[in-house]
Amino acid sequence: MEFLILFLFYLVFILLCVVVICICFNTHSWKVLILGGAQVLSDGRVCVLPSSNRIFVVLHLILQVLVYAEYSWEIFGYCYDQGFTVCSLVMPYLLLTVNLGFFFLTCMEDPGTITKANESVLLQAYEFDEVMFWRNAKCPTCDLRKPARSKHCRVCDRCVHRFDHHCIWVNNCIGAWNARYFLIYLSTLTASAATMAIVCAAFLAHLVVVLDLYQETYIDDSGHVQAFDTVFLIQYLFLSFPRIVFLLGFVVVLSFLLAGYLCFMLYLVATNQTTNEWCRGDWACSQHCPLVTRLPPAEAQVYQNIHSHGLWSNLREVFLPVLPCSEKKTQ
Ligand SMILES: [Zn+2]
Ligand SMILES: [Zn+2]
Predict the structure, then answer these.
(1) β partners of residue 4
(2) How does DSSP assign 207-258, residue by residue?
(3) Catalyses which reaction (predicted)?
(4) Residue 11: which of 286, 188, 246 has the closest Cα?
(5) Are strands 138-139 and 144-145 parallel, antiparallel or unpaired?
(6) What confidence score (pLDDT) does residue 256 get?
(7) How far does residue 247's CA lie from ligand 1's centre (Å)?
(8) Cα distances (Å, whole numbers) of residue 19 to 12, 52, 251
(9) Nearest ligand to residue 50 Cα
(10) Reported confidence tier of residue 23, pLDDT bands at 50, 70, 90
């Protein structure tokens, strides 16, 4: 019971911190957090609320500071004294350094803003499939012709070349020119969470072995002597080292979520799709469903990915993009 109460106390504490941070910034950010930063359009699609703010960037950095402060304060010194290899203990810091570098690059780098100056060059970058991207489409907001694979970001209020998505955690669009930074940022974030989880688990396992906890006994409610089982052991560790067990749970969940998302992004890179195209491709396919009759049959055409030209070529397109000053075409 005590275990449950303490666990709930931690959850409430973290939620309260998030609420206080949001209220401190502004009330609109609070609404964004409540709504998950997204709204559902009338046709069922989901889009981000059209406002740019740095609340999630700050939240991201605060969480990283808290995780690394706990790691440095309670885990690093103990593990070092217990003979853990320096390499394994320093690895989370190295990954953090690389991660922060690419985090700021993703935040600061122009994702591929389409302007009057580069409009004509970018119009030739990709073929128009005439299903998802039409040759003569024009952005009514920017008053520019829309290159294939581009999209107007409602949050940043600009058209972005090879638009992938708008990421609230970096407060920037992910497009042709910063997708590579985003992928390295995501990879190092996943690796740092996984490394942190491994070190935390090793720390607790070491404690169990050193303290011989499996040999310990306790007296249950009915007065009988019981040996420590796994559930009791977890409760004991949580009550003895609450912050470390909570940190372990947090980084384990985070590692799985990030690894899943990273796999999805790598799949998109390997097949030369953007998140925007992947979502709209599904939506376009749904127009063929006999239960969905939003478009007349003449407008419903099969979407095919015409941009994939093999794994190496697809990787090169993301990691060695054609930069704005270049006159070359991407194909
Ligand atoms: Zn636009
Ligand atoms: Zn954006």
Answers:
(1) none
(2) HHHHTTGGG-EEE-TTS-EEE--HHHHHHHHHHHSHHHHHHHHHHHHHHHHH
(3) L-cysteinyl-[protein] + hexadecanoyl-CoA = S-hexadecanoyl-L-cysteinyl-[protein] + CoA
(4) 246
(5) antiparallel
(6) 96
(7) 42
(8) 10, 19, 21
(9) 2
(10) low
Distance 284 CA to ligand 2 centre (A): 23
- pTM (2 d.p.): 0.80
* Structure token pair of residue 186: 């995501």
Among 107, 167, 173, 200, the active-site one is: 167
For ligand 2, an ion, list residues with CB under 5 A.
Answer: 153, 155-156, 166, 173
Rounded Cα gap, residues 209 and 227, in angstroms: 15
How many angstroms separate the alpha carbon of residue 39 from the centre of ligand 2? 15
pLDDT digits (tens, 9 = 90+) for 201-242: 999 999 888 888 777 777 777 777 777 777 778 888 888 888
- Per the annotation, the verdict on 167 as an active-site residue is yes
